[in-house]
Design a protein that fits this description.
Strand order of the largest sheet: 3-6-9
Shape: globular
Number of strands: 9
GO molecular function: nutrient reservoir activity
InterPro entries: Di-copper_centre_dom_sf, Hemocyanin/hexamerin, Hemocyanin/hexamerin_mid_dom, Hemocyanin_C, Hemocyanin_C_sf, Ig_E-set
Pfam family, one: Hemocyanin_C
Domain Hemocyanin C-terminal: 232-363
Radius of gyration: 23 Å
Strand content: 15-25%
Order of helices and strands: HHHHEEHHHHHEEEEEHEE
Protein name: Hexamerin-like protein 2
């Protein structure tokens, strides 16, 4: 992060430029990359590939919003093709070949690139929206997917990412990837000046660019548009018979900044590999941390039953102090903890430590 912020976006640079977060996102991106066909490598298909794509973007944007809220910043607006990009970015990075990663000035418009046109991307988005409104998606062989019969979030996620599981990439394109490419090369769309790929086009550095979250919001808006057509959950869908959550209490959450050292050995070159074997090179960065905490759940059950406990955290008020409605704030919640628990008949006092959360890891050695 920046020691002194020169613009509002730099107030949350401790989050967007966090080494661990960017590494984790890169890992998720490369685990099943959009260009990867599992069948060619005798690997099992990722059954929930599209849903995972949606969940990752939603959780990431929710956490990003909470960091903005903590710094009194409003929510971001989705990227718009018809208006200039109002957020510039200077990454202060060099690529592995020594070339400086390109900066992006404010006020620049998205223009047709040598490999795609703005109108082409608009057409893909319109086709997806039309399919949602009509209630059908069309496959490669003209098969119909009735969107009103079941939840096809997974299929929609594959379509939007444009991966190998997409039911019709030729017709629906790769909306997410197209946006990343279009805005990632916005300063030199036709490669006239030989500008290299920006940080937005590399999974290892995408999260550093504030524009990424505007793109993610545009993609998520398609998901939410689809979900608005689904039937709402009924009481029976969500109710676990005989089980009542009577109370939940959290310790006071205390966050602070500390320094974090990480190895950069692979950023250095030596005439002989053995020359660097006896040295360890590290860089130091400020990062957001928190003190360990506990939370308690009091649950009453009429009988012994297996359960899954999920705990979410989210905002109550927006950046202007206005209270959110449940429908407004649901997209800003992210998963804090999830675990299996066998409830006993009677009172159950559940105590969980932040160190037990499955979504968080210990410090790397």
């Amino acid at each position: 992060g920046y020691p002194v912020a020169n613009n509002p976006e730099e107030l949350v640079s401790y989050f967007t430029e966090d080494v661990g977060l960017n590494s984790y996102f890169a890992y998720l991106s490369y685990m099943y990359p959009y260009w990867f066909n599992p069948k060619n490598y005798s690997l099992p298909e990722y059954q929930y590939r599209g849903e995972s794509f949606f969940f990752t973007l939603q959780q990431l944007l929710a956490r990003y919003y909470l960091e903005r809220l903590s710094n009194h910043l409003p929510d971001v607006k989705a990227i718009d093709y018809n208006h200039p990009v109002l957020v510039g970015y200077y990454p202060e990075l060099r690529l592995q070949n020594g070339v400086e990663a390109p900066a992006r000035p404010e006020g620049i418009f998205a223009r047709n690139a040598d490999i795609m046109y703005v109108e082409e991307i608009k057409s893909y988005e319109r086709r997806i929206h039309d399919g949602i409104d009509y209630g059908y998606f069309a496959g490669y062989n003209y098969e119909k997917y009735n969107l009103r019969e079941k939840d096809y979030t997974n299929i929609l996620g594959n379509i939007l990412e444009g991966n190998y599981e997409s039911i019709n990439k030729e017709f629906y394109g790769a909306f997410y990837r197209n946006l990343i490419s279009l805005f990632g090369h916005i300063v030199d769309p036709v490669h006239k000046y030989g500008v290299p790929a920006s940080v937005l086009e590399h999974p290892e550095t995408q999260l550093r660019d504030p524009l990424f979250y505007r793109i993610a919001k545009r993609v998520l808006s398609v998901f939410y548009h689809y979900k608005s057509h689904l039937k709402p959950y009924t009481h029976d869908d969500l109710y676990l018979p005989g089980v009542t959550v009577e109370d939940i209490t959290f310790d006071k959450l205390v966050t602070y900044f500390d320094t974090f050292d990480f190895e950069i050995n692979n950023a250095l070159t030596f005439a002989k590999p053995e020359d660097g074997a006896d040295f360890s090179y590290v860089a130091r960065q400020y990062r957001l941390n928190h003190k360990p905490f506990f939370y308690h759940l009091k649950v009453k059950s009429e009988k012994e039953v297996d359960s899954i406990v999920r705990v979410f955290i989210g905002p109550k008020y927006d950046a202007y102090g206005r209270e959110f409605s449940l429908d407004e704030k649901k997209q800003y919640y992210f998963l804090l903890d999830a675990f299996n628990y066998k409830l006993s008949a009677g009172e159950n006092d559940i105590k969980r430590s932040s160190k037990d959360f499955p979504l968080y890891a210990k410090e790397a050695p």
